[in-house]
Design a protein that fits this description.
- This protein is of the alpha+beta class and about 375 residues long.
- A hairpin with a 5-residue loop joins strand 10 and strand 11.
- The protein contains twelve helices and 18 strands.
- The N and C termini lie far apart (about 55 Å).
- Helix 1 crosses helix 10 and helix 6 crosses helix 7.
- The protein is globular, with a radius of gyration of 21 Å.
- Strands 10, 11, 12, 13, 14, 15, 16, 17 and 18 form a nine-stranded antiparallel sheet that branches. It has a five-stranded parallel sheet with strand order 3-2-1-4-5, with helices on both faces.
- The protein binds adenosine-5'-diphosphate (ADP) and magnesium ion.
Length: about 375
């Protein structure tokens, strides 16, 4: 059994275990294999995006703790590409392997109320919020937070799922009933100027490195486009990175973490949410930065020196959702004909609307030009 805070580096040739089977694990596995590591993945499905490129794919539900223990026994360090793994699974793995980040960090970040409480207790800026776990709390929350507001389920939300806009107590009642009265959080609606994110890495010895903020545009609550560098005053960019550092110290975090921020119309930063794993907004680091977010995650969890997060050239990333397949296979050749454009596909066979199937990146001398190129390439996919 390995000591949980062992500081001995995990060197190439070792085996990394990834809990989760999606595209984040896929790109992590590609980065890890490039550096000579072996990768095992555990997820409930077969032939997952991660499983397709891993050395070993274990198919088991996350709450099959015997399977998780057996998985952990065969690897040197366990990490995540999906945060909604039950905390019990992380704890079970901790008995047999290093787990980075820890089950405790996962426990906080997988639950919106615990996460916001952690942020507020550390003096970090969040939009006014209140817990909703009973009819009485719902009433209290609407009057203390005020409207307009957003009601969000406390757990298992992603890509805008489990969220509703609230204008008054009646709409709050209806929305909470449609969430089957699961534990939720009511959050004041933020008058947004823009959204940015910071991806930070923290090593075993506490060393910290962050990518400069990415600027993100959403469509139907799903990330649509990210651009680097963000157009953000230097003061706010520094503050966003400093908040990221403080969160990682507060969680005694080892690994990679993303913070999604709101920039208010009056020029303040608010933390929207944390993701204890690589993030969609940093996919452009694969092509545009000296170290990708996936290689940085690997370096952090293996106790290796963190890599340079420098942006080599302005870049833009556009997501490819399943909707693009509605009239047949997209025109890949047309997109790839656009100069500097790179195509990343996740190996998913079923293209459902709203499902993230892949992304495009473009590099250019300015971020405006990179954005123009990536959107041109995405549009070209439709011209079959
Ligand atoms: N309080 C809010 N005020 C304004 N917009 C919000 C608020 N909460 C969420 N949104 C919008 O919805 C998007 C998704 O919400 P988020 O809480 O990040 O959930 P998810 O887990 O689905 O990413 C945000 O990126 C933002 O565009
Ligand atoms: Mg989000």
């Amino acid at each position: 059994m390995s000591a949980r805070n062992s500081s001995k580096p995990i060197l190439p040739g070792s085996t990394i275990g990834v809990l989760g089977g999606g595209q984040l694990g896929r790109m992590f596995a590609m980065a890890a294999r490039r550096l000579g590591y072996r990768v095992h993945t555990l997820a409930p499905d077969q032939d997952t995006p991660t499983g397709q490129v891993a050395d070993v794919e274990v198919v088991a539900p996350y709450d099959d703790l015997d399977a998780v223990r057996a998985f952990a026994r065969n690897v040197d360090v366990v990490t995540f590409e999906f945060e909604n793994v039950p905390a019990a699974a992380a704890t079970a793995a901790e008995a047999f392997a290093l787990v980075r980040p820890t089950g405790q960090a996962l426990h906080i970040t997988q639950h919106r109320f615990r996460e916001k409480t952690f942020l507020a207790q550390h003096g970090l800026p969040v939009s006014p919020y209140a817990p909703v776990r009973s009819e009485e709390e719902l009433q209290k929350a609407v009057s203390s937070v005020g409207t307009p507001a957003v009601l969000k389920t406390a757990a298992f939300g992603y890509d805008g799922k489990g969220q509703a806009s609230i204008s008054d107590i009646e709409s709050a009642e209806v929305a909470w009933a449609s969430m089957k009265r699961q534990d939720a959080v009511l959050e004041k609606f933020v008058n947004l100027d823009r959204e940015v994110s910071v991806v930070g890495a923290r090593g075993v010895g506490g060393e910290f490195s962050a990518f400069a903020p990415f600027e993100n545009a959403h469509s139907r609550h799903i990330l649509d486009v990210s651009v680097a560098p963000a157009s953000l005053p230097e003061r706010l960019a520094k503050e966003a990175i400093e908040i990221t550092r403080q969160v990682m110290v507060g969680l005694d975090y080892v690994g990679l973490l993303c913070i999604e921020f709101f920039v208010t119309r009056d020029g303040r930063l608010l933390v929207n949410e944390l993701a204890p794993r690589p993030h969609n907004s940093a996919h452009l680091t694969f092509d545009a930065c000296r170290t990708s977010q996936f290689e940085q995650q690997l370096r952090a969890i293996c106790g290796l020196p963190l890599g340079s997060p420098d942006l080599l050239q302005p870049a833009a990333m556009a997501n490819l959702l399943g909707d693009l397949w509605s009239d047949g296979e997209p025109n890949w050749a047309a997109a790839l004909a656009v100069s500097s454009v790179k195509l990343h596909l996740y190996g998913k066979s079923e293209a459902r609307p709203g499902r993230k199937m892949g992304h495009l990146t473009a590099l250019a001398p300015t971020r405006e030009e990179a954005l123009r190129l990536v959107l041109q390439a995405r549009e070209a996919l439709r011209h079959r």
